[in-house]
Design goal:
heterodimer; A: alpha/beta; Aspartate Aminotransferase, domain 1; Aspartate Aminotransferase, domain 2; 7-stranded mixed beta sheet; 13 helices; B: 157 residues; alpha+beta; 3-stranded antiparallel beta sheet; 5 helices; PyrdxlP-dep_Trfase (chain A); transferase (chain A); Cysteine desulfurase (chain A); PyrdxlP-dep_Trfase_small (chain A)
């Protein structure tokens, strides 16, 4: 079934109950939408259930036994996730999702920019008119809109690297300046599959003293990522794209930065000393986790990391790259199909977006859906990128460890069927 | 879902293209997929005398706009809104609403779309543009009337 040594895909599939169901009148499900959300193995579901049945309590409050056990489970999950990404436990903040992680940083910077009642340590996060935030044209809306909003609130200017026809970042399109305060970009495009040149972008950001935020939503679930080694300041990713639960994501921040950064959300749990007139805040990561956090979800994400570690993230990556190779080659061979993104697999990961001449992406998706093949259609929350390529919508296939070469073949056959159905076969 | 009638309208859309003159124009987008329609309405008294449009969208949204022109051009505004309501009820009916062919004509072909909630917006995009454009013509007329009634008063010292 697969050519990757050390991976038995059928055995893996047996861990994912949902993959055995049928859709649209008895068709076996071919799930090729893991870039939107991945499916969860029984081990993750069991971990959540076991936590809730045996240890559930509000974490970081109360001294009873359940509270201790719940806190221990929550913090153990944090430590396991931190180790997985090359971070210290104190550098991992649990958020609702990656979007909240980016907003947390943007609002902390916004709060710093108001400059009242904050210590001098927050000055490095302050922005004003003339300052710049730099992103790229391929960003997910989650790594675009929060920065637009931060610019609107502070008077800073948003600039971006443009994207080449091949789907790579055009590093010559803009120059960073001494006024560049933040450089934020995706590790891997959720549409094109392009892996961005992190080291070069970090080097350029460091040269002007800018902070770097990495959107790692499409990289951490699919390939080995060591955030310490990448030397980024912040990074975000979500649990539900890495075989874990929804409702939990991670903001990574370098310890020294989190220690200096003011909070975004305030309230219970994140305090040190509260008086009617004034409050001081706890050390990170608690400073950024106001209120009772998601708990069974964090435990589930810890279990997902354990599941991935048991298989090996490098094995998963090799498997997915083989599927991407098959998908890119198979689709490119279908007349009228144009792949949006690099066909060269150098610095490329597992999202394959394409258009079919004469058939709208929705219609391709519908024909695929009727055959049991679940893909994403539309702009995939990267509307400016689609505009850049002159298309309103694309079809996107994306993979995870449980996908098989047969499923990629079903995708390619389905695309051919869509062309036939809409009569664009010459 | 893809009835032959829908594919016919998709391949040979009726009334496509933007035409002058028109009384009001509406631009609608489907934010989930980025599909767009620009639709113009021309009225002759209370009658819809022309609907012209340009779409960037899937077969469902294009065919739906084509069917719309067949169903509303030549009708009174009141009648066309009745058709619109019937079409919308069918499309949003999750397959539970039995469409009336006497009212909806070729529009009944879209009954199958109701079973695909993600596509309902596609089928309704043109209709929402039509509704919006008709409302705009009324606003334009109201404004013109208000202007006409107000002007003489304002002209007084």
């Amino acid at each position: 079934m697969t050519t990757i040594e050390g991976l038995d895909v059928q055995k893996v599939r047996a861990d994912f109950p949902i993959l055995t169901r049928t859709v649209r009148e008895g068709r076996p499900l071919v799930y090729l939408d893991s870039g939107a959300t991945s499916q969860r193995p029984r081990q993750v579901l069991d971990a959540e259930r076991a936590f809730l049945e045996q240890h559930n309590a509000a974490v970081h409050r109360g001294a009873h036994q359940l509270a201790e056990e719940a806190t221990d489970a929550y913090e153990s999950a944090r430590a396991r996730i931190a180790a997985f990404i090359g971070a210290g436990p104190g550098e991992v903040v649990f958020t609702k999702n990656a979007t909240e992680g980016i907003n947390l940083v943007a609002y902390a910077m916004s709060n710093s920019s108001i400059r009242t009642g904050l210590g001098p340590e927050s000055e490095r996060f302050a922005l004003g008119p003339g300052d710049e935030i730099v992103i790229t044209e391929l960003e997910h809306h989650a790594n675009l809109v929060p920065w637009q909003e931060l610019c609107r609130r502070t008077g800073a200017t948003l600039r971006w690297y443009s994207i080449t026809d091949e789907g790579r970042v055009d590093l010559d399109s803009i120059e960073l300046t001494e006024r560049t305060k933040v450089v934020a970009f995706a590790h891997q495009s959720n549409v094109l599959g392009t892996i961005l040149p992190v080291a070069e972008l970090v080097r350029r950001a460091r040269a002007v003293g800018a902070l770097v935020l990495l959107d790692a939503c499409q990289s951490v679930p699919h390939m080995p990522v060591d955030l310490g080694e990448l030397d980024v300041d912040f990074a975000v990713f979500s649990g539900h794209k890495m075989l874990g639960p929804s409702g939990v994501g991670v903001l990574y921040g370098r310890a020294e930065l989190l220690a200096a950064m003011p909070p975004f959300l305030t309230g219970g749990s994140m305090i040190e000393l509260v008086r009617m007139e004034h409050t001081t805040y706890s050390a990170p990561p608690q400073r950024f986790e106001a209120g009772v956090p998601m708990t069974s979800q964090a435990v589930g994400l810890g279990a997902a990391v354990e599941y991935i570690n048991d298989i090996g993230i490098d094995v998963i990556h090799a498997h997915e790259i083989a599927l991407v190779r098959q998908a890119v080659d198979g689709l490119a061979a279908v007349p009228g199909v144009r792949i949006i993104g690099p066909q060269d697999l150098t610095d490329r990961g597992g999202a394959v977006a394409f258009v079919v001449d004469g058939v709208h992406a929705h219609d391709v998706g519908q024909v695929l859906d009727d055959r049991g093949v679940a893909v994403r259609v539309g702009h995939h929350c990267a509307w400016p990128l689609h505009r850049r390529f002159g298309v309103a919508a694309t079809v996107r296939a994306s993979f995870h460890v449980y996908n098989t070469p047969d499923e990629v073949a079903a995708l390619v056959e389905g695309v051919q069927a869509a062309r036939e159905f809409f009569g664009v076969v010459s | 879902m893809y009835q032959e009638i829908i594919l016919d309208h998709y391949r040979t859309p009726h009334g496509a293209g933007l035409r002058e003159p028109f009384d009001a124009e509406s631009f609608q987008i489907n934010p989930t997929c980025g599909d767009e329609i620009t639709l113009r309405v021309k009225l002759d008294g209370d009658t819809v005398s022309d609907v012209s449009y340009e779409t960037l969208g899937c077969s469902i949204s294009q065919a739906s706009a084509s069917v719309l022109t067949d169903l509303v051009v030549g009708r009174s505004i009141e009648d066309s809104m009745r058709v619109l309501t019937a079409f919308q009820e069918m499309a949003q009916g999750r397959g539970q609403v039995e469409p009336d062919e006497d009212v909806l004509g070729d529009g009944v072909a879209f009954a199958g779309v109701a079973r695909y909630p993600a596509r309902v917006k596609c089928a309704l995009l043109g209709w929402m543009a039509f509704k919006d454009a008709v409302v705009r013509t009324a606003q334009t007329q109201d404004a013109a009337q208000t202007q006409a009634t107000r002007d003489p008063e304002e002209a007084q010292p």
